[in-house]
Specification:
Blueprint (H helix, E strand, L loop, with lengths): L5 H17 L3 H31 L4 H29 L4 H8 L2 H10 L7 H19 L2 E4 L2 E4 L4 H4 L4 H17 L1 H21 L5 H8 L6 H30 L24 H15 L1 H12 L3 E2 L11 E5 L4 E5 L7 H19 L5 H4 L5 H11 L5 H4 L3 H31 L5 H15 L9 H4 L8 H5 L5 H19 L1 H14 L5 H7 L11 H18 L1
Parallel strand pairs: 3-5
Antiparallel strand pairs: 1-2, 4-5
Length: 554
């Protein structure tokens, strides 16, 4: 990778900003605006590429050094972007920008101005270092299993083994690793909470909660989420209990233990027999037939080889989509392991990548990567591709769909549990680690009342959240999975009634990307907001009806 000259980059950025500020006509200012954002994409694509290379080979010292370099200069970049936001808000020809980009450009600029000042630059660097430390401990993890040392990520196929004793043994090995690093995770989380509280205080927030929301461009509030969590407690938890009961029956066991939760059907443990080449051919067929836009997207993804799908011992166990090159080329990073979840994961990350592809015309980073609605596109893609699942699963297609629905909704109470826990962590930043664990265990019992740790003292003591990476890396993000799923399921239901209309709604949301906040995106697609009173129960009733009818007609 070419060395990135940050000093030269800063000089060019400041020059572009001066020309923008001094522009005498809208045409001139708009031209400089586009050049500034091109310049921003130059940095962000280089940073993304460094991350891809490092995650793809974390043993490569050169890649590690370059990735570290971008972490260290991120504060400098944020300082430049802060100036950009200031200039946007002071733009002489604001009305002209609003006519092209909408008012949300200025809403985002105002929100982002609140999240950064020079006084927090060092704290943000410390936060980044702690996040990296967590990621490296987990990413490099080796565990003892069957008298061999293997990567933690290689346990995946054993965690869903059809043999229950193997599953239990795999989970025991997994949590033995987390137990061995209990001190590390306690220390890292405590320091992250403290440094985030420090950042929030310096920026004028009472605590990190609202800052966390503003970092993700959220238009909804803590009160909105509190009301939604109430619906999950009253309607979601009983619904998932029904799903778990059926899961237990399908597995033929008397009691569901924690090491059974991710096995939803005996078919789920079957390995996919297709080669990677056959899988990719099936994905190509799926996207070609879904709509012309997805066909064009996938063709470009394949031609540019912007896919990292292979297992490697030096590859981090992550799955994500991003973009590279200043022309915003989507890139997907995941590992195909020969299990049914490969199909779901590929569809999920394709949803992210496709949205980047559809939104690239905006040429504004905040519009291309819409933090408050990012998961809407990925979950929608998971559901809208149901008609092509027979390509992968044949006679087991029905089982896949039921399993997928069961697994997706099983995350609903977990998402609420994590969100409530995160609010506790940052509303009470000075409590002890023991108090945090006790609180987490209480919340688990509320939202996951049937979770059975089978006497595992480490988990019973409230340590199961160590593996929830979002708690460490991106607080308050996890709830977005459930909010997005809530909306995606509605879109899938509309697809059953009118496929072409639902696809067009999906494409419209993808084209809008971050130019609209979450609530306006779903409003434009005629989807019910999760924050509306009694919005969850009717959705669950319809899903339950679909699953019951499917069982009968199978």
């Amino acid at each position: 990778m070419e060395t990135f000259n940050m000093k030269r980059y800063e000089e060019q950025f400041l020059y572009l900003m001066k020309e923008f500020n001094d522009a005498e006509t809208f045409e001139q200012q708009h031209d400089w605006f586009k050049k500034i954002n091109n310049h921003r994409f130059h940095y962000e694509s280089a940073r993304n590429e460094s991350m891809i290379k490092y995650f793809g080979d974390f043993e490569n010292n050169t890649y590690k050094e370059i990735n570290t370099f971008f972490r260290e200069v991120e504060g400098d970049y944020l300082s430049l972007v802060d100036r950009y936001y200031t200039s946007i808000l002071r733009a002489s020809f604001r009305q002209g920008f609003e006519s092209i980009y909408g008012k949300h450009l200025f809403t985002l600029a105002d929100m982002k101005k609140k999240t950064y000042r020079e006084s927090v630059k060092e704290d943000i660097q410390r936060e980044s270092d702690l996040i990296t430390e967590y990621q490296e401990i987990v990413g490099n993890a080796m565990v003892e299993f069957n008298q061999n040392k293997i990567k933690l990520t290689s346990l995946s196929k054993y965690l869903t083994s059809p043999n229950r004793s193997i599953r239990k043994k795999a989970y025991t090995s997994k949590y033995q690793f987390y137990k061995q690093h209990e001190g590390d995770f306690d220390r890292i989380l405590d320091k992250l909470i403290k440094v985030r509280q420090s950042i929030a205080s310096k920026l004028g927030y009472s605590n990190f909660v609202q800052l966390g929301f503003d970092r993700m461009n959220r238009s909804h509030t803590s009160s909105d989420l509190k009301e939604y969590r109430k619906q999950v407690k009253h309607h979601g938890v009983p619904f998932v209990r029904i799903l778990r009961k059926k899961q237990k029956e399908r597995l033929g066991i008397n009691e569901l233990k924690y090491y059974d939760e991710r096995v939803f059907d005996k078919y789920e443990s079957v390995l996919l027999n297709d080669t990677k080449e056959n899988l990719l051919e099936n994905f190509q067929t799926m996207f070609t037939e879904l709509c012309p836009e997805t066909a064009s997207f996938y063709k470009g993804l394949d031609l540019k080889k912007n896919l990292d799908l292979e297992y490697r011992s030096n590859k981090m166990g992550r799955a994500f989509a991003t973009f590279i090159h200043p022309n915003i080329s989507p890139y997907m990073f995941l590992t195909l392991r020969g299990v049914p979840n490969d199909v779901r994961l590929f569809a999920h990350e394709s949803g992210h990548a496709f949205q980047f592809y559809m939104t690239r015309k905006w040429n504004i980073p905040e519009y291309v990567v819409p933090y408050d609605s990012a998961e809407l596109f990925s979950f929608a893609m998971e559901h809208l591709t149901y008609p092509w699942m027979h390509l992968f699963f044949g006679e087991d297609t029905f089982n896949y769909q039921i399993t997928h629905l069961t697994e997706s909704f099983s995350y609903m109470p977990l998402s609420s549990a994590i969100d409530e826990f995160e609010h506790f962590l940052y509303e009470h930043p000075n409590v002890s680690n023991e108090t945090r664990k006790s609180k987490w265990r209480d919340i688990e019992r509320t939202f996951l009342p049937d979770r059975n740790f089978d006497g595992n003292e480490f988990l019973e003591s409230g340590n199961s959240f160590y593996e929830i990476g979002h708690l460490f890396t991106t607080p308050f993000y996890f709830m977005d999975y459930d909010l997005a799923h809530f909306s995606a399921v509605q879109l899938w239901m509309k697809h059953q009634d009118d496929p072409s209309k639902s696809i067009e709604s999906f494409l419209s949301m993808c084209r809008s990307g971050g130019s609209l906040p979450f609530h306006k995106l779903i409003q434009g697609a005629d989807l019910t907001s999760p924050f509306e009173e009694n919005s969850l129960q009717p959705l669950l009733a319809r899903v339950q009806n679909y699953m019951d009818q499917s069982e009968v007609t199978k």
